[in-house]
Structure to design on (460 residues):
């Protein structure tokens, strides 16, 4: 299979800009549309490629400079086409991310002057260069995404793709597990929720009294995506946020702090930082209810007792799940676990992606309690968490272990469909790219080695 092209070049270049090359740093070695590629850009990116190869432990006979130049040509073409097609990006988010990266670089260097000396240019130029590269990369990613996301595939195409593969080209599907579960949320949830609200109200009072919000977020927030940034989130539209969160945020003025807000993820206090048009930037502290071992013991005892009843055949696992499980996604199906919660979290409504077999990597902490079980066996009750991080207690019954096997159309349609779709997306993107290469002005300085280009159409 040919690898899908991913335009992530901008993040590599923008993350750690290197000092300009002294000899031919400003020499233009290629032009695509209205965009120039400097020799120093190619050198910098080739170093990134070599570092990435070393990190991943793989070698390549392909010259890194040639690979870097071809990647830059593609990014510039995508960027120019994105401008022609009026593709939109979130420039405020890009600027914010660049500012944060530059602040981190200043901290690493020790001072602004030390950073300027290291990079060979003033800090405003460093920011401008990083912002340019980041914006170009965002445009290129959005452009490529618009092309690939428009590609669909039919069942007939999937079957033809499968039949076209040699036996040694068929993918190997790893071992999978099918299981059922009975879950119980703590009976003391009401008290735990109240404790959580009180903690957040106390934090709110501390911020009003002068304590820094970001410091409390770093210390206490349970949101792994924002805690290290002091609770800060990127600029977002309200539609991108959970409705209770969005409703509270929309009522705030800059620097104001909300009351306690409940969402499916837990409880928040929110501070509005800035608003630009329909874009909101805020920071928040997320807390989830926590429970003592004593509070969780009742559910462990209950599920242990229920396990004994099932073992003694006084009730079936399926009936016990229907009668006692708190898992709305599985209780009506005898406790059989699906990926419906995951699909809901990510807003995916296509039921064709529904599945009941899971790879070991998908099981998280549950796998340690499933390991060693045979089909039909039950685990001991154990503490776990749902997709949103809420504490619960769980009892598992292993239904089946599907051994690792060569993919077949009958048993592994979704996996094959995904591979077939990626293959078609790649083919359609290459067709689109070749047409644009023919139509767009492209010039490459003869001094550059183009002999190892994968796509020879760049050479005109």
């Amino acid at each position: 299979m040919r690898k899908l092209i991913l335009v992530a070049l901008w993040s590599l270049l923008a993350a750690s800009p290197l000092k300009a090359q002294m000899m031919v740093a400003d020499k233009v070695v290629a032009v695509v549309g209205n965009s120039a590629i400097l020799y120093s850009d190619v050198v910098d990116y080739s170093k990134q490629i070599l570092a990435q190869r070393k990190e991943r432990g793989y070698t390549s006979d392909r010259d890194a400079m040639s690979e870097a130049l071809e990647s830059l040509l593609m990014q510039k073409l995508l960027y120019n086409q994105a401008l022609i097609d009026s593709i939109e990006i979130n420039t405020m988010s890009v600027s914010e991310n660049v500012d944060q990266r530059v602040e981190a670089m200043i901290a690493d260097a020790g001072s602004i002057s030390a950073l300027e000396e290291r990079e060979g240019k003033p800090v405003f130029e460093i920011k401008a260069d990083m912002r340019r590269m980041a914006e170009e990369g965002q445009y290129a990613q959005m452009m490529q995404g618009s092309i690939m996301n428009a590609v669909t595939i039919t069942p007939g195409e999937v079957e033809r793709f499968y039949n076209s593969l040699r036996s040694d080209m068929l993918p190997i599907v790893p071992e999978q597990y099918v299981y059922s579960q009975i879950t119980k949320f703590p009976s003391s949830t009401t008290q735990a929720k109240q404790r959580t609200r009180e903690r957040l109200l106390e934090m709110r009072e501390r911020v009003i009294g002068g304590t820094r919000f970001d410091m409390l977020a770093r210390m206490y927030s349970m949101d792994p995506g924002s805690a290290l940034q002091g609770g800060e989130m990127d600029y977002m539209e309200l539609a991108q946020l959970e409705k209770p969160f969005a409703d509270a945020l929309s009522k705030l003025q800059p620097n104001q702090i909300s009351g306690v807000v409940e969402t499916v993820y837990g409880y928040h206090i929110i501070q509005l930082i800035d608003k630009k048009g329909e874009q909101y930037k805020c920071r928040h502290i997320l807390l989830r209810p926590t429970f003592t071992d004593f509070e969780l013991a009742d559910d462990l005892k209950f599920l242990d007792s229920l396990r004994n009843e099932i073992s003694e055949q006084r009730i079936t696992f399926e009936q016990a799940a229907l009668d006692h499980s708190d898992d709305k996604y599985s209780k009506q199906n005898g406790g059989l676990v699906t990926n419906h919660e995951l699909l809901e979290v990510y807003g995916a409504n296509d039921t064709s992606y529904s599945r009941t077999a899971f790879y070991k990597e998908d099981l998280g902490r549950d796998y340690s309690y499933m390991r060693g079980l045979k089909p039909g066996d039950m685990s001991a009750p154990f503490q776990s968490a749902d997709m949103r991080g809420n504490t619960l207690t769980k009892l598992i019954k292993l239904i089946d272990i599907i051994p690792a096997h060569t993919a077949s159309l009958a048993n592994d349609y979704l996996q094959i469909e995904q591979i077939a779709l990626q293959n078609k997306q790649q083919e359609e993107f290459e067709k689109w790219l070749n047409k644009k290469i023919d139509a767009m002005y492209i010039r490459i300085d003869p001094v550059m080695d183009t002999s190892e280009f994968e796509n020879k159409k760049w050479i005109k």
